[in-house]
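Open question from group meeting: does this chain pack into something compact, or does most of it stay loose? Before anyone orders reagents, we agreed to write out a predicted structure and look at it together. Recording both the input and the output here so the notebook holds the full record.
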Amino acid sequence: MSKQLILITAPFNCGYCKTAQKELPEICKKQGFELIEIEDEKTGEKGKDLPVDTYPTILLRVNEKITKTLSGYNKPAIISEIKKY
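Structure tokens returned:
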């Protein structure tokens, strides 16, 4: 089973993103998830930006399928979701 947590961070200094970057590696390691970090690029060109309204945005991808999208950083909610897999 392929399990990935994709962390999409802000293209500017974001405190919640920094906290997520600090705490998620350990959480992912304990739960057997691969952590992928992507910094969103606000290019303004249609189709270039990631579908993100809030930073950070966290996507759970299991077996190549996005199973959950979480907006903002909520550690208990993230742990609760990844424990389902």
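Observations to bring back to the group:
The longest strand covers residues 3-9.
The longest helix spans residues 15-31.
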